[in-house]
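Q: Hand in one record:
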Amino acid sequence: MLEHFFGSRTRFKLLQIFFRSPTKSFYVRELARLAGTQLNGVRRELANLENLGLIAPVEVNDSLPGAGGTERSKYFRVCTDSLLFPELKSLLLKAELLEEREFVELIKKRGGDIALFMLTGIFTQENEIETDILIVGKIKPQSVARIIKDYENELGRTVRYTVMDEKEFQSRREIGDKFLYRIFEARHLNVIDEYGIN
């Protein structure tokens, strides 16, 4: 959606990548892979963003090549001291929240007969949790997998998810399954909860 405001899907994807990791430096081929687009398009948009003062080239030093580039790779980093940085960061965060809402609604609508739908992990900044989504019920696994794959492509990052039928969930809950209780005890969002889990 916001690519229309930014004039280019590639530019929008690059901004998302830079603003999600403001302390990280990226090289051109890495950015093309993460944005899922052609090198020439990435180079063109990097030049535009550099001219706007939103990104800057970074000198190659011993700490950077570990990211996968070579000595000749040109690295870029977002300019956190840019006057536009706070406003763009806020706008990109809102766009991500809108995408997240659409994603949740798609799973609710097409995922099957869902009794429990919890978001944790990347959705609640719980980085130690082993999954980002827990879905319980009579699930349509192929539909859920397709929706999550599309969402991953949009976000440019992996989403870990766990699907269980109600019998497995009840059995694991009764025996005090550590995996489940780590999710329950961590920060999480209950989208659908027919079990009364707080």
About this structure: Strands lie at 26-27, 55-58, 75-78, 112-119, 133-139, 161-164, 189-193. The longest helix spans residues 85-110. Confidence is low (pLDDT under 50) at residues 62-66.
